[in-house]
Amino acid sequence: MAELEKVRAKFKELDVNGDGVLSYEEIEDLLSKLNAGLSENDLQQLFCEIDHNHNGVVEIDEFLDYLASGKTAGPGDAPQGSPSATAVREEWKQAVLDGHNELRALHGAAPLGWSDECYLEAKMQADKCQAAGKMMHGHSPGFNHGQNIFWCSRPGSSAQRAAQSWYSEIDRPGYNFSNLDYQKGTGHFTALIWKNTTHVGMATSEDGCYIVANYFPAGNIIGRFAQNVAPPLDPSRPRPTRGSAPARR
Question: Which segments carry the region annotation Disordered (predicted)?
Answer without folding.
Answer: 228-249
